[in-house]
Amino acid sequence: MKTVVFFVLACVLASPLSLAKLHLDAEQNSARVHIEKTAANKVRSSKQAAKMVKQRYGGKVLSVKGMKDKSGYRVKLLKKDGHIISVYVNAKTGKMQG
Fold first, then answer.
1. Which CATH topology does 46-97 take?
2. Can you tell me the distance from the alpha carbon of 52 to that of 79, in angstroms, rounded to the nearest whole number?
């Protein structure tokens, strides 16, 4: 009987904490999604595209070229290991490929 009472009491006391933690986790997740959507909203310049690619892949930006149809940017990077990579940044979505 004592075990059941203790278990029920523990559940009642822990429940507000659990709910508060779930609420905090939901708020943090919502904030993260908002930041991602805002960051991926639109790439407005070659400078912004270069900054995004450098943050994700590291290295030194060699060149940035806008696509003729204005759909995005091609960023060339020199990685620390000596490799040169080319990353395409979609201007509408901010998604990177490469």
1. Nuclear Transport Factor 2; Chain: A, (3.10.450)
2. 15
Q: Hey, what amino acid is at 32?
A: R
Q: What are the sequence ranges of the domains in the chain?
A: 1-39, 46-97
Residue 43 pLDDT > 70: yes
Average pLDDT over residues 25-50: 69
Instruction: Express each pLDDT in 71-82 by its tens digit.
Output: 999 999 999 999
- HEC per residue, the chain: CHHHHHHHHHHHHHHHHHHHHHHHHHHHHHHHHHHHHHHCCCCCCHHHHHHHHHHHHCCEEEEEEECCCCCEEEEEEECCCCCEEEEEEECCCCCEEC
